[in-house]
Amino acid sequence: MNMLIDRQVLILQSIVENFITTNQPVGSKQLAQSIDFSSATIRNDMSKLEKEGLIKKTHISSGRVPSEKGYRYYVDYIKKDYELTSSESEKLKELMSDKYVSEDNYLEKNAIVLSDLTDCTAVILAPTKADRRINKVEVILLSSRSILVILVTNIGEVFQQNYKLDADFTAEDIAEVNKLLQTYFYDVDMATAHVIIHGELEKYLKTKVNNYDMIVVALNRLLQNKIKKTVALGGKYNLLKQPDIDNVEKLKEVVSLLEDDKIVELLDHNVEVTDSDTCIKIGKELELENIADLSLVSSKYNTSKGQGVIAVFGPKRMDYSKIMTLIGCVRDNLNNNLK
């Protein structure tokens, strides 16, 4: 991209910030009222910005709106630090002084406040050890139709769950199961565990144990119920209120996105930051089918239990400076108060 002169940067900034505020195309006459250049000069520079792919025409107006490239330029080179309003500062102060009851409860409160202040959908993933791995899985036969499944991680966590079965199992059956579990489940990361269960383990259980599928279901449930990341969601339906989500297919995609497993998968794929950095994905950078109108701003926080994720989903025309500042405040709060 060719370098923009200062005047063109100012015009692009004005177009982006006007559109963020009003959701209406921006014309040269409107810009001339707020910046000290003639309409003709502004039109010439808008033509230059359009040729660079930073702004684009709409079908319903002679004004211009930012393109994804324009938003990216704005985020990378133009946006300024955001100063919290007194109301925002007060809400954050209340949050920071709120009594800690439990991790889940505290994460949910932070997500709700973040969604209220941004008018977007806020997601916070509970902290997990980056190096958490499975060291042992064992099945204990309690009765012919009842088992206890135990899972031990490399950081000393022990998860266990009782399961009722719909068929009889013998001690010999369970011995075969444990022999295979010892082979496949030592020093295995969480993501690989699901692949193993539905791959090699299921293949060999099928040849050794009758009604093997019941064991597979029990193992899978333990992983899903005990190991899955806790998701705190605030403003779940804020995305559906956005005028950018303007057809049935987009609505379906957004509703699907708001399922816990989908959110975790999306964040795992898109949060490319360490420590206090912030990651911004705009529109098609998220690679969401049917939804090119959303953006994601995210960061990670650190506790003694490991790293967690804070994220805000919103329209491409979200107030990036404001949201980055608010995420930073919530990140500091979680860093300081989650032990």
UniProtKB/TrEMBL annotation:
Q: Which GO terms describe its biological process?
A: negative regulation of DNA-templated transcription
Task performed by this protein: Negative regulator of class I heat shock genes (grpE-dnaK-dnaJ and groELS operons). Prevents heat-shock induction of these operons.
So what family is this one in? Answer: Belongs to the HrcA family.
Keyword annotations for this protein, in alphabetical order, are: Repressor, Stress response, Transcription, Transcription regulation
Q: Which GO terms describe its molecular function?
A: DNA binding; DNA-binding transcription factor activity
Q: Which InterPro entries match?
A: DeoR_HTH, GAF-like_dom_sf, HrcA, HrcA_C, WH-like_DNA-bd_sf, WH_DNA-bd_sf, WHTH_transcript_rep_HrcA_IDD
Q: What is this protein called?
A: Heat-inducible transcription repressor HrcA
Q: Which domain of life is it from?
A: Bacteria
Native source species: Gemella sanguinis
